[in-house]
Every structure is written in C-alpha cells, then in structure tokens.
Amino acid sequence: MKARVHVMLKTGVLDPQGEAVRHALGALGFDKVEGVRQGKVIDLDLADGATEADVKDMCEKLLANTVIESYEIEIA
Amino acid sequence: MRAAVVVFPGSNCDRDLAVAFEQAGFKVSMVWHKDSQLPDGIDIVGVPGGFSYGDYLRCGAIAAQSPICQAVVAHAERGGYALGICNGFQILTETGVLPGALLRNAGLKYICRTVGLTVATENCAFTDGYAAGEVIGVPIAHHDGNYYADDATVQRLKDEDRIAFTYVDNPNGSVADIAGILSENRRVLGMMPHPERASDEGHGGTDGAAMFRALSGMFAEA
Q1: Residue B222 has pLDDT above 90, yes or no
Q2: pLDDT per residue as tens digits for the range B152-196
Q3: CA A44, CA A70: separation in Å to the nearest integer?
Q4: Residues B74/B109, Cβ–Cβ less than 8 Å
Q5: How far away is chain A from the Cα of B101, in angstroms, using its nearest Cα?
Q6: Angle at CA A35, nearest 5°, toward A34 and A41?
Q7: Which residues pair with B44 in a beta bridge?
Q8: Residues 6+ apart with CB under 8 A from B202
Q9: B:104-123 residues touching chain A, CB 8 A cutoff
Q10: Mutation choice for A interface testing from B89, B95, B103, B174 by most A CBs within 10 A
Q11: Which residues of A touch B101 (CB under 8 A)?
C-alpha cells in the first residue's frame, strides 16, 4: 500500500515562506496571486496489513505537529 | 549539584552549556541521545542548541522521539528541572513538555546577534537572580525562533505568569514577544536566546551567568 500525507500550516498560522513566494511571484509579474501557502508531501511505502489508522497515528505522533499543522491522508 | 547535558547528532551548544553549568559549580555528565536513561541523582537536565538530526522534518521533531527524550519527559513529569535552549526549546515543545511551537522567523532570515531580553518574571529558579523588568543582553542564533501558540494558550501563559523572558525588540515575529516560557510547575524553562553564550567574560557579556548561579544556589540549599 502507498500513502501520501499532505502537511500544511493551519489556517491562521502565519506562513512566512508562502508569503515570500507570493512576493517573488509578484516581482515576476504574476500579479493575480493573492495568497500562497507552502506545505510538504510525504510518501509512505507500506507493507501489507498497514491501515489508514496506522498512518493517522504516524501523523499524530511525528509527521505533523498538530499545534501548528494540519494533515490529510491519501491512500493509493 | 549535578547536571546532565543531552548530546544529539547535530548538537553544537552542548559543550558551551556544560561549561556554563560547570562554572556555576555543577558536576556535569554528557548524555548521548541513544541512552534511555538520565544519570541517577541529577538536579537538572540541559537540552542544548544545535541542529539535532539536521532539523529534518521539523526542528526538534526527530530528537523528541529519541530514547533520551523519553527519559527527559519522564524526568520533567516527575517534577525534575530541565532547561532547553534554542533547539532544546524546540525539542521540548515537540515533546509536549512545553506548549506551543517554534515557526520559521517572520523575516525568513537566520538571525545571529545579541538582543535585549526583559525578565518577565523572577518567580522561578531560573530567573531568581534577576529582577522582574530587568533588561539583559543575550545572543540569539536561530532560523526558527518564531514562538507560536494559540490565543488561549498565550493568555494562559500570561495569566499563570509563565512567560520568563520577552524580547525588547521582537526579532523573529514571536507572539507576545515571547523569548522563553515555563512549564506549569515552573521547573522547565525553554528559551530561544543562549544564556550559556553570555556567561563568561570571553563571550563579550555575562548577563546569562546569573541563571546558572541562581540554579546552583538553589540546589546547594536543597
């Protein structure tokens, strides 16, 4: 099984890197960009028997810091 | 008095922290990240600055899961004293021993310079050697020192007098100018600035030394 985890800063948490990307896009002439949020994608190769609940546990314990980040799990 | 200083792969302030403890009269043991227990009879554990595990995933995230950190958490839960500086502060928030998290600096730049800190409370063993409101000069050296906690948590920190230090001139975007916070029992301090780098004449400033002297004085009396 493969799982893909998307980790993003929560809404309301300032994302200075996303902000910097937005500024850079503006400087390149892309003037219709109103906001940029930057996150990460983590791909997991899982052995047979692994479940989505296991991945959720991994997110809660390590992959995301739920104080500042939210996550979404995609099972392929 | 006995202190332990944790060493992770990528720690770079472990020796500075050990020397600061030693100069204040502590006998210091260095503890490797793969050890699963702290030495018996220590009065305080120091979690030093650096880039533990290369700051992979998030600053302090991997270190927080290491065997020694489980021992540090257990030590704190038993009411033991702990001091986390810079990466050590990030690690203590990742373990949940301290609330909140450290984000990328608002200005996105790594900042390395001496800043003014206001001692926000003198009501803990760490700041007993200062007067509340006193301004001290202590170096910062971080890229991810932007303290964040939700409004309710920040209000709770204020109400419980758990903000130990604030920045005079906020360099990194930290909420409420927070530079360092205390645990609920006031025995764990996490801070981004480096008092161990301002504890010897050769450092160009000694404003951090009072923290180690105050700790030493308290444990000597105990």
Answers
A1: no
A2: 999 999 999 999 999 999 999 999 999 999 999 999 999 999 999
A3: 17
A4: no
A5: 7
A6: 145
A7: B3, B81
A8: none
A9: 104-108
A10: B103
A11: 65, 67-68
> What structural domains and CATH numbers belong to chain B?
2-221 (3.40.50.880)
Beta bridge partners of B115: B138
pLDDT digits (tens, 9 = 90+) for B9-53: 999 999 999 999 999 999 999 999 999 999 999 999 999 999 999
- Write down the ipTM of this complex: 0.88
DSSP count for chain A of H helices, then E strands: 2, 3
Residue whose token pair is 């791909």: A43
Tokens of B53: 């595990």
Question: So what's the architecture of A2-75 in CATH?
Answer: 2-Layer Sandwich (3.30)
User: What is the DSSP track for B87-136?
Assistant: HHHHHHHHHTSSSSEEEPPTT-S-EEEEEEEEE----STTTTTS-TT-EE
Do the Cβ atoms of A67 and B58 come within 8 Å? no
Residues of B whose CB is below 8 A from A17? 104, 108
Q: Tell me the Ramachandran region of residue B105: left when phi exceeds 0, alpha when psi lies from -120 to 50, beta otherwise.
A: beta
Tokens read off for B99: 């609330």
Distance CA(A63)–CA(B135), nearest Å, equals: 38
